[in-house]
Amino acid sequence: MDSVEYRPLEEGKPPPKDSGADLKDFLGALLLITVSVVFAVAALRIPFQTSYWVWYTSPSIFTLAMVVCLGGCSLFVAWRALRGWLRKRHEAQPICWRERFRLWGMGRFLASMAILLVYILLLGKVPFLAASVGLILTLGTIFREGRFWDALRSAMIASAVIVVLAYAIKNIFGTLFP
Amino acid sequence: MDVSSILGGMWRLLLDPVTVLYVIIGSQAGLLFGMMPGLTTTTALSLLTGLTFSLAPEKAIAVVLGAYVGSVTGGSRSAILINIPGTPAQAAVCLDGYPLALQGRAAQAIGLSVTASTLGTLIGFISLALFTPLLGAIALRFGTWEFFWLAVFGVVVAGTLCAPNDPIKGWIAGFLGLLINVVGDDGIHAVPRFTFNLVQLSGGFSLIPVLIGAYGVPEVLNAIRKREKIVIQTRVDRVVPRFREVLKHRWIILRSSIIGIIIGIIPGVGSDTASWLSYFTAKRGSKNPELFGKGSIEGLIAAETGDNACIGGDIIPTITLAVPGSAPAAVLLAALTIHNLRPGPMLVSEQPHVVGWIIAISMLSTIAVFFLSLLWVRQMVRLLLIPRNVLMPAVFIICVTGAYALSGRLFDIYVMLGFGLVGVLLQELEYPIAPFVLGFILGPMAEDNVRRALIITEGDPGPFFTRPISLILFGLLVLSVIGPTSIGRGIKSGVMAFLRRSIRFLTR
Q: Which residues of B touch A108 (CB under 8 A)?
């Protein structure tokens, strides 16, 4: 195989359109095939015929039909993507996953997910409004674009607004809070 | 068809000041949601459906429908001022709205867009009032076989139209929605399926947490992930409605409204398609097509009218057939079902007053949105400057409240986050979310009807292909699957060539 020199991607510019797209499609299709297989295995454990139902009214019949549709279409996408990837792999520059993830914003995504997860797990254990104010202050200051104090001021205003809004929602719509 | 009950329902609702107030609240909330870039109409409706669960049905529907009209109209505000569509439906509005704002005509553009939206919405709702009882009467002829095909047809067509470049991805998203829906006890024998021994899953995934997760959470995560700085390019003066200026383009309004209504009736396809189709049709028929994209009034009016007229079209199949015309209409369907109003063919005959409510609320919300759009313009524009990193956590908190409010289970909040991740994954892999949601909503209709039909015929699938309406629906389904493929394109060009030859032969 010819060696291809790696050229770093420029920040702010999208990566070349075909580079890695087929591989992404292939991996996505594999994931969907896995989902189909999991559902197929679980559906086949349900008997087709019992004293309560016959094959055509079995609780698994519709599931199996959908598994065939989803699995079949996903197989086609996987095959198409694999064929495209194998055809282009000599011309395309190697994929640098770390840089791709950086451009996509994976760090910010994972950090925000972690914070949101902590918030959700705290619900029911700490008062809802306190946890919510904490969430706004944390996300508002961590992912700030400008100075810390400006971000903190905006986050505090937003926290106050959400407290007022929660009060209004509770009174106007009679909504329950976690 | 009981017209007097429909009219009675309308009048009772119009005379209730509290419901009218809820329409105004919903419309204002919709306007605010619509103008915030990244927050879609579907998110707004999902949140409000959860939040209004404890209200009386007509009041909850008043808030949800008001928000529907408000958010579709409000989306043009950010499209005109910052070149970012508030909702995907307003992407076409950016093309001419933003150049108008750059020319210092922001107030004129907003005035025109509000007026065109109002006219489009009104025409759409007039069609709703006219066609709902009619379609309701026709829908009474549908049997279990037809409803199965209708559900599958809705999912497949939504897949084809939401992923025009790669329809198979749209179909996959639809099938995934249909498959996820089977989790929980089955509807006929109450056998637990795919619950992985989780008691909370015995009732399946609740619709509202799934909707909020699939639409709202990816928006929050994406907004935090991306670094964006919003700059408003122009000042906004007093906004005046421009009926006379808009009425000069009455044919564009009429044509765009018809396009919007037809697109709305097609299951799963929403305002964004209507908006683009109206825009390109107006461009094709214009005397000044070169102005399109550079601040054309015709382009702005066509896009705005098309996406708003679509609302009325969306609601028609939603309430008569229980097949939602678009993703926001799917939430409306869920809201009606949650409040035990049972949309479908029986709604018009058994609960005609509900049809009356919907028509009255639709008209009221159009008027409310028109006036609210002209009030507080400068104050509302300032909201666009709220930093994303502060706004999005607040939206997430409302998402959590919306998901929890329906049944008071923390499990629903976990479901919401889980489906949020599914939504992010689908977006990144370029699978459309609308068919997935539509599949999830239409899943019970498809499964229950296919099994019920097979019970009736003792396992004989014949009536699926021999009953006239079934056969038509099956034919349409096959066409929508084959249409985008090379075989379909070949057949289409062959048929067109044959027709051309026939016309030439006949006119010789």
A: 224-225
- Render pLDDT for B398-432 as a digit per residue (tens, 0 to 9): 888 888 887 888 999 999 999 999 999 999 999 98
Tokens of A34: 């896995």
Number of residues assigned to chain B: 508
Using an 8 Å CB-CB cutoff, list chain A residues near B63: 173
Residue for token digits 């989803």? A70
Give the pair of three-digit tokens for residue A65.
Answer: 């039909």
Distances (CA, A) of B353 to B8, B314, B338, B499: 7, 20, 17, 48
| Pairs from B219-222 (Cβ < 8 Å, separation ≥ 24) | B219/B38, B219/B39, B219/B40, B219/B43, B219/B392, B219/B395, B220/B392, B220/B393, B220/B395, B220/B396, B220/B399, B220/B420, B221/A109, B221/A112, B221/A113, B221/B420, B221/B424, B222/B38, B222/B424, B222/B427
The pLDDT tens digits for B322-373 are 888 888 888 888 888 888 887 888 888 888 888 888 888 988 999 999 998 8
Q: Which residues pair with A126 in a beta bridge?
A: A123
Taking a C-beta distance cutoff of 8 angstroms, is the pair B433, B165 a contact? Answer: no
| Number of neighbours of residue B379 by Cβ within 10 angstroms | 8
Closest CA to B70 of B109, B35, B38: B35
Question: B55 CB near a chain A CB, below 8 Å?
Answer: yes
Domain ranges of chain A: 21-102, 105-173
Question: Rounded CA gap, B32 and B220, in Å?
Answer: 16
Give the residue among B325, B307, B255, B250 at the shortest CA–CA distance from B91: B307
Among candidates B182, B229, B429 on the partner chain, residue whose Cβ is nearest the Cβ of A63: B182
The model carries a pTM of: 0.82
Q: Which residue of B has its CA nearest to A27?
A: B429
